[in-house]
TrEMBL record:
Amino acid composition bias (Low complexity), ranges on this chain: 415-428
Database matches in Pfam families: MFS_1 (PF07690)
Keyword hit for Membrane: yes
Annotated TM spans: 20-40, 60-77, 89-107, 113-134, 146-164, 176-196, 226-244, 264-285, 292-317, 323-343, 355-376, 382-404
Subcellular location(s) of the protein: Cell membrane
Domain Major facilitator superfamily (MFS) profile: 22-405
Name of the protein in question: DHA1 family bicyclomycin/chloramphenicol resistance-like MFS transporter
Length: 428
């Protein structure tokens, strides 16, 4: 597949400052999910104690956010195909800032769970519409490179968020972390308002209505290539989210890490995602995207098997930490390439917002369903987390192998995007 991309009409040509600003904004929008989840990870044990609840109930606050992220994408994606990208994006970011304040003032774990659903649903607009904007302008190898580039920004969220969260806990109780998220929502709203233009002109917008949306979703779900790569993303993220939800208790309660040390360890693992994504971006075009995806899945599977072995044999942190690094690093090859492959399918190319939405639904639905598995046997054992990660990685590899048997779609001419997105073509 060759690179195809055109600048949005009215853009500043190849101006590096415009391009950098656009990458920062779009990358920050896709980082809403990990930022909303990871900032308060070091606070989970303290939150459980403060609200007098257990590990499973506390992990449900993660699941609730993920459920909101999934449901919100299913709404925001099709809306952006009908109304354009800007209006749904700005509305979602405004609602995210308000919902984060409500999370901060939640008096019980049940209220917090409910508010986390709302917060996730609102923030989903940023994730799904950012992907759709990239697909408006790029496809195939060019899209994979751009998604890898966005992970430079997206990857900062899981690297910095737990570290920042751990340090903030020295100054404020856990509700203060949600106040910080509200401020992030306001900043992203202003950035999108001032820095992103419309990339979907009226003549390319889809007909609205529930029936049209349902028909589009049905067409995408029956596309074997799209459905296979979407399920691959969901299963791989399920392994990742099992680690995200289980590691605060495993590493702090079982292996004795402090919240601050845990934040550093989590950040190192996230750095592995960024590094792998940039290596994959460099190789895209020289190595087939399907082969890069298979390499990422192999890394995650090896990490899952190593983690289970380390837990069962009592190897301690010397066995657990390297295995977790593999589990997380492999995601940097999986997510950009599986996303580009899915959105390059013939049906997804005609409805980027809806296609992006279904990818998000698969990713966050399976991730949310996997989260409670890590704590199903209580806070005193790491076996459920390790076994779940290993099983999900194997399933993702099997599904991706089946999807790879479908013919690779030809590179189609890229449609001209209207508006001023400020995103010049990516370099070859």
């Amino acid at each position: 597949m060759t690179q195809t991309a055109r600048p949005a009409a009215g853009t500043a040509g190849g101006a590096p400052d415009r391009r950098l600003w656009s990458i920062i904004i779009l990358g920050s929008l896709t980082a809403i999910g990990p930022l909303s989840i990871d900032l308060y990870l070091p606070a989970l044990p303290a939150l459980a104690a403060d609200l007098s609840t257990g590990a499973v109930q506390t992990q449900l606050t993660l699941t609730a956010c993920v459920a909101g992220l999934a449901a919100g994408q299913a709404v925001a994606g099709p809306l952006s195909d009908t109304l354009g990208r800007r209006r749904p994006l700005l509305a979602g970011l405004a609602a995210y800032a308000a919902a984060s304040v409500l999370c901060a003032v939640s008096p019980t774990v049940e209220t917090l769970i409910a508010m986390r659903v709302v917060q996730g649903a609102a923030g989903a607009a940023g994730i799904v519409i950012a992907r759709a904007i990239v697909r408006d302008l790029y496809q195939g190898v060019a899209a994979a490179r751009f998604f890898s580039m966005l992970m430079l920004v997206t990857g900062l969220a899981p690297i910095l968020a737990p570290v920042l969260g751990g340090q903030l806990l020295r100054l404020v109780p856990w509700p203060g972390l949600f106040a910080v998220l509200s401020g992030v929502g306001v900043a992203l709203f202003l950035g999108a308002l001032l820095g992103l233009g419309e990339t979907l002109p009226p003549e390319r917008r889809a007909a609205g209505g529930p029936r049209a949306t349902a028909a589009t979703f049905r067409d995408l779900a029956t596309d074997r290539a799209f459905a296979g790569y979407a399920l691959t993303i969901g299963l791989a993220f399920g392994a990742m989210f099992t680690y995200i939800s289980g590691s605060p208790f495993v590493l702090q309660d079982i292996y004795g890490m402090s919240p601050q040390t845990y934040g550093v360890a989590f950040g190192v693992n996230a750095l592995g995602i960024v590094t792998a994504a940039q290596v994959g971006g460099r190789l895209a075009g020289r190595v087939p995207l399907r082969r890069l995806l298979a390499a990422g899945l192999g890394i995650v599977t090896a990490g899952g098997a190593g983690l289970l072995l380390a837990v069962l044999t009592g190897a301690g942190l010397y066995g657990v930490l390297p295995a977790l690094f593999l589990v997380t690093s492999g995601q940097g090859l999986i997510l950009p390439n599986a996303t580009a492959l899915a959105l390059s399918s013939s049906r997804a190319s005609r409805a980027a917002g809806s296609g992006s939405a279904l990818l998000g639904v698969a990713q966050f639905t399976l991730g949310g369903a996997a989260a409670p598995l890590a704590g199903i046997a209580g806070r005193g054992t790491a076996v459920p987390m390790a076994a779940s990660i290993a099983a999900l990685a194997v399933l993702a590899s099997i599904v991706a192998a089946a999807a790879a048997r479908t013919p690779e779609p030809p590179e189609a001419p890229e449609p001209e995007a209207a508006g001023d997105a400020g995103i010049p073509p990516s370099p070859a």
